[in-house]
Design brief:
Elements lengths: L12 H13 L3 H11 L3 E2 H8 L3 H13 L3 E6 L2 E6 L2 H15 L1
Antiparallel strand pairs: 1-3, 2-3
């Protein structure tokens, strides 16, 4: 399968700002912990608190930001809100980043 590339001649200034914002999302260890936890599957806030060791307030705050950045999505199940990664790109970015760190 051929590797898909971006035509650099059509990258706009807005695209560059959006890319910078994407990488900012990965600049906080609590957000990284949450994303790694969600790589394992769908979780509610209480499960994320348990897995990350962060407070409920911190988890809720960071989830709100990750959702605004389109890195996670959620759905309601009764009174619970279940969170999950938005798409496979998030998993790939995290894995590639960790591979780079571990080299």
């Amino acid at each position: 399968m051929a590797k898909k590339t971006v035509d650099k001649s059509i990258i706009t200034e807005e695209d560059l700002y959006d890319l910078a914002d994407l990488f900012k999302a990965f600049s906080d260890t609590t957000r990284i912990k949450l994303l790694y936890a969600l790589m394992e599957g769908e979780l509610c806030v209480a499960e994320l608190v348990e897995k990350t060791g962060a407070t409920q307030s911190a988890v809720s705050h960071q989830l709100r930001g990750l959702k605004q950045m389109d890195l996670i999505r959620c759905r309601k199940e009764g009174k619970q809100v279940i969170y999950f990664l938005a798409d496979d790109h998030v998993h790939t970015i995290l894995q590639m980043g960790m591979d780079h760190v571990k080299e």
